[in-house]
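Suppose you are handed only two things: the residues of a chain and a line of SMILES describing pyridoxal-5'-phosphate. What would the bound structure be? This form records exactly that question and the answer produced for it, so the two can be stored side by side and reused later without any lookup.

QUESTION INPUTS
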Amino acid sequence: MKLPIYLDYNATTPMDPRVLEAMMPYFTETFGNAASRNHAFGWKAEESVERSREEIGSIIGATGKEIIFTSGATESDNLAIHGAAEFHKEKGNHIITAPTEHKAVLDMCHYLEQNGYEITYLDVDKYGCVDLQQIEDAITDKTILVTLMAANNEIGTIHPLKEIGQITRSKGVLFHCDATQGVGKIPIDVNEMNIDLLSMTAHKIYGPKGVGALYCRRKRPRVRIAPLFHGGGHERGFRSGTLNVSGIVGFAKAVEICKQEMESEAERLTSLREGLHQRLKDELDYIYLNGHPTKRLPGNLNISFAYVEGEALIMGISDIAVSSGSACTSASLEPSYVLRALGVGDDLAHSSIRFGMGRFTTSEEIEYTAQKMISAVTRLREMSPLYEMVSEGVDLSTVSWTSH
Ligand SMILES: *Cc1c(COP(=O)(O)O)cnc(C)c1O
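ANSWER OUTPUT
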């Protein structure tokens, strides 16, 4: 086993060697511009792009024609939301989303809010789930779009996409889904779920960084959006700019592997996740699971360890690469806005750890992580007066803290 151990698969994934192999010829041999119509270099590149488009579409039940290539999910989210808002501004100015969405969605919504749009932020329950009735009630004749993610990147909670899609379709409102964490990990079908726009990215599914896609429905109904970029009219005018051919080929290979291995991999990761959770629960008290216990991504475990300091904990497990609820938004010490939206207190948010497991995670690594966590938390709690008090049966909520 090699150290450090990578357990941050929700942030990014290493590229699968099979993906790299598929990409290699596209840097030096098949390097043509897919938009060059006059020679074989261009034709070959275009052929590879079109084949990749079909492959990528197929993992969500879409056709190749419905795939728009972008630089990643941030761009896809921006293109979908801005594009729908801009194109349909005559129809209305109202968008519905949730406070637990990715910043790429929330910051675009904030931008639109400053430019005359109205945004409804749905409530989420303690697991980070939205309420279907509230979605239905929030839709007005001014609503153009509902944007809700497939699965949350911090807490792993999976949204009921099919039920959401039934509501948006019956009300004639567009449904955009940031499925960055869902694609390749859980079954997603845009037709079954009535999804109109869907964002994805290659680097979360063992593909290269800097390439993603936006699915944009072509039939029943034909979805119209305005472009963000203006230029050569690539991607049927939706996204100008020379295509990242090698990246697109890698993205397609990554999708192909996910399609083959998704089912067995989900089973394996669920068992690793449950094993880690069980080990921690057996050895430590006062730990709390964040996110839904069962409706969650196979490889995501997010736990708050009460009575330890988050930063100290991260330092105590320095050979394990995880993400913490306090360090999520860059260098700020602000606790995770996702955990806050769930009603998790600042203390518990600060002491939360996201374990992101993936394709190359082994049971040996999980065992090492469990041991390391148990000893780090135990050691930190030995120094914690609060932990000592609760262990002795003191109810902290009844203690009156005075400075004199
Ligand atoms: C990673 C992520 C993004 C951003 O994707 P990039 O390709 O890095 O821009 C957007 N949404 C979710 C849910 C993510 O997990």
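WHAT STANDS OUT: The chain has two domains: 5-9+263-383, 17-257. The pocket of pyridoxal-5'-phosphate is lined by residues 72-74, 102, 104, 149, 153, 178, 180-181, 201, 203-204, 212 (CB under 6 Å).
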